[in-house]
Write a structure and sequence with these properties.
This protein is an alpha/beta fold. The protein contains 12 helices and 9 strands. It has a 5-stranded parallel sheet with strand order 5-4-1-8-9. A two-stranded antiparallel ribbon has the order 2-3. It has a two-stranded antiparallel ribbon with strand order 6-7. Helix 7 (about 175-185) packs parallel to helix 10. The longest helix has 28 residues, at about 55-80. The N and C termini lie far apart (about 200 Å). Belongs to the TIM50 family. One of its GO terms (biological process) is protein transport. Component of the TIM23 complex.
């Protein structure tokens, strides 16, 4: 009985408390505060001033201008100065500014990079433009130091190569070439110096020189490439330049030493050509009389056909000798 009474009183008390809360409008659930996200705070902040399109275009223009100036300076230095001159100027500049920059070498890195790059490029180019060696021929035997070196061009001098549709390429021997080589091999060291590739020179000479009159063969790799042309550089032959003769149908246009040239008419399949045979008397005379410097002898024939001029001089010499002989005979009487 008492327990029922207690439960009923508790029930009434709880009912009164609930009704009081509804009257005051208080909710049992706590009110949640609104939360502001970090993204919202960041978006609400004033953005920093950004570089506009104009500033970016100015920066781009400045970079292009600096690159163009550096490229132009490099090109001008490469054109106006040799590598040795650039190195000399760089060393002088380094010595002048050494006290100002101290041990800091960062300012010279661009110059050193340019010099290294230019050395590499010039070494590569030199392999194509310079003769393959400073000494194209081996040393002359001590017992042959008195022998003259006869350098011969190949195409249009000893042979002529011709192409036709019905037969392709054919190579023809110049009239008298066999007798010319065989006779002069007794007096000269004969060298063929051509601007053609060795793949052309070697097969032609194998068939042309079956008696071994030609001692050495030099092809395009031994020439010097200048302004689009391959020149014979006689200074690289490892021979005394005062004892070198160069015979070619294009002698003055193909040699860097015109003072050693013996021009001859280019041969283009003329059947009545005798140019090689006509030169034999002059060349034999040179070998037998051994002038001190062949260059001074050739200079006396400048502008003249050497073969015909030598014949005229020989006739004049014989006439004078005959007159002197007759004059001495007259006084003996």
């Amino acid at each position: 009985m008492s327990s029922r009474l207690v439960r009923s009183r508790l029930h009434d008390l709880l009912a009164r408390q609930r009704s009081g809360r509804r009257a005051l409008g208080v909710s049992a659930t706590p009110v949640k505060e609104s939360v502001v996200s970090s993204d919202t705070l960041l978006n609400d902040q004033t953005p920093p001033p950004s570089s506009g399109p104009r500033s970016r275009s100015l920066l781009k223009f400045g970079a292009i201008a600096a690159f163009t100036a550096a490229l132009g300076s490099t090109a001008y230095a490469s054109y106006a100065y040799t590598l040795d001159e650039v190195e000399e100027k760089a060393n002088k500049f380094r010595a002048m500014t050494k006290g100002l920059v101290g041990d800091d070498t960062s300012s010279f890195q661009a110059v050193e990079l340019y010099l290294d790059l230019r050395r590499t490029i010039e070494d590569q180019v030199r392999g194509f433009t310079e003769p393959l060696s400073e000494k194209l021929l081996p040393d002359l035997h001590p017992q042959e130091q008195h022998v003259f070196t006869l350098v011969l061009d190949l195409n249009e001098t000893l042979v002529y190569s011709d192409w036709k549709r019905d037969r392709g390429w054919r190579t023809f021997k110049r009239p008298g070439v066999d007798a010319f080589l065989e006779h002069l091999a007794k007096f000269y060291e004969i060298v063929v110096y051509s601007d053609q590739l060795s793949m052309y020179v070697d097969p032609v000479l194998e068939r042309l020189d079956q008696k071994g009159c030609i001692r050495f063969r030099l092809s395009r790799a031994a020439t010097k490439y200048v302004n689009g042309k391959h020149f014979r550089d006689l200074s690289k032959l490892n021979r005394d330049p005062s004892r070198i003769l160069y015979i070619s149908g294009h002698a003055l246009e193909s040699s860097l030493q015109p003072e050693n040239c013996v021009p001859i008419k280019p041969w283009k399949l003329e059947n009545d050509d005798t140019a090689l045979l006509d030169l034999i008397p002059f060349l034999e005379y040179v070998a037998l009389h051994s002038p001190t410097d062949i260059r001074s002898v050739l200079a006396s024939y400048e502008g003249r056909d050497i073969a015909s001029e030598f014949i005229e001089r020989s006739k004049e010499h014989q006439r004078r000798m005959q007159e002197q002989k007759q004059h001495r005979g007259f006084w003996r009487r």
